[in-house]
Automatic annotation (TrEMBL):
Gene3D superfamilies: Vaccinia Virus protein VP39 (3.40.50.150)
Pfam families: Methyltransf_23
GO BP: any one term: methylation
PANTHER family membership: METHYLTRANSFERASE TYPE 11, TRANS-ACONITATE 2-METHYLTRANSFERASE-RELATED
Alphabetical list of InterPro entries matching this protein: SAM-dependent_MTases_sf (IPR029063)
GO molecular function, one term: methyltransferase activity
Cross-referenced SUPFAM superfamilies: S-adenosyl-L-methionine-dependent methyltransferases
Organism this protein belongs to: Lampropedia puyangensis
Keyword Methyltransferase applies: yes
Protein's name according to its UniProt entry: Class I SAM-dependent methyltransferase
Record key words, sorted: Methyltransferase, Transferase
Length: 288
């Protein structure tokens, strides 16, 4: 009887139980471990994530938010996104972790593309993973200013983009076209023709849970449209915009690929920009 009461208690209180040895989906695995570890490494040096109120801008399906809570003890995370992939999280987590319910402090919100969050949210930390390259260019600064207002003075914002537009895989089309810098070398029409013609397997580490909704051809259209809407920000442009919004840079890391870009591209773009595939930024709202 006591055993049964304990199980009922654990089902409704505290952190829910999970089993990470059950994970089979590559996308889930990459977010549950790799992305989450990096977010934790960068933010955890400045904030005690277990005590902090966190906001994830562009949370997608919310897998890394869930992992920050289950694996690192974060207690309060609010994810916002213009899509509603996070609605799939309870089912995904049941399948991949045998998780019976999401943690109590995890919440999600569907927002409009430039909806103001300041005033409604006041947090200690913000994270944004692979999202800012998708924000319309003229919305980047207003959104950065709004996120600045959401942070308490002294709070930090971890921002990651990979791949950056001008790098080898910056089109986000590698799952269909395995040619580096192809988007800077051929026309948009040719890119679309090559995507349409693709009949091979997809790298499951790059296939998100949206694939099930779109189907094979719908997913091609979705991925191509995402490519067309990329804002093409370079790392330096992003940093300058964040500083203009008021943030100070605590730490920055530009990762570069070793591959040599094709000569015709080097005549048009700086080598530094063509090889810089990732930017990791830790920003702070000054004033604590
Ligand atoms: C490549 S996904 C990354 C999602 C998630 N961070 C992850 O790592 O799986 C980019 C996300 O940014 C979201 N997004 C794009 N523009 C946005 C905006 N203006 N405001 C909020 N979310 C946005 C998209 O809906 C999408 O979920």
């Amino acid at each position: 009887m006591l055993h049964l009461i304990d199980r009922i208690k654990s089902a409704f209180q505290g952190q829910p139980r999970f089993d990470e040895s059950l994970i089979t989906n590559e996308w889930f695995k990459a977010h549950f471990f790799y992305a989450t570890d990096l977010i934790h490494d960068w933010m955890g040096k400045e904030l005690d994530l277990r005590q902090s109120k966190l906001l994830n801008f562009g949370c997608g399906d919310g897998i890394s938010d869930l992992a920050l809570m289950l694996r690192y003890g974060a207690q309060r995370i609010h994810g916002v996104d213009i899509r509603q992939e996070f609605k799939k999280l309870p089912k995904i987590a049941r399948e991949q972790l045998h998780l019976q319910r999401l943690p109590k402090g995890l919440s999600f919100e569907n927002i409009q593309p430039s909806q103001s969050l300041a005033g409604k949210h006041q947090v200690d930390g913000i994270m944004s993973w692979s999202t800012f390259e998708h924000v319309q260019r003229d919305q980047v600064l207003p959104i950065a200013r709004d996120l600045f207002q959401c942070l308490r003075p002294g709070g930090v914002f971890f921002l990651q983009i990979e791949p950056l537009y001008y790098s080898a895989w910056g089109a986000h089309l590698r799952r269909y076209i395995d040619t580096p810098w192809v988007h800077l070398l051929v026309s948009e029409e040719e890119l679309w023709q090559r995507i349409q013609a693709y009949e091979g397997e997809l790298d499951m580490g790059e296939v998100d849970y949206g694939f099930d909704d779109f189907g094979v051809d719908g997913y091609k259209r979705f991925v191509f449209k995402e490519y067309q809407h990329l804002n093409r920000l370079t790392a330096d442009e992003l940093i300058a915009l964040m500083q203009e919004a008021g943030f100070e840079v605590v730490r920055q890391q530009k990762n570069h690929m070793q591959d040599m870009p094709p000569l015709p591209l080097l005549e048009h773009y700086p080598q530094e920009v063509l090889t810089n595939n990732e930017i990791l930024l830790l920003l702070r709202r000054p004033g604590a």
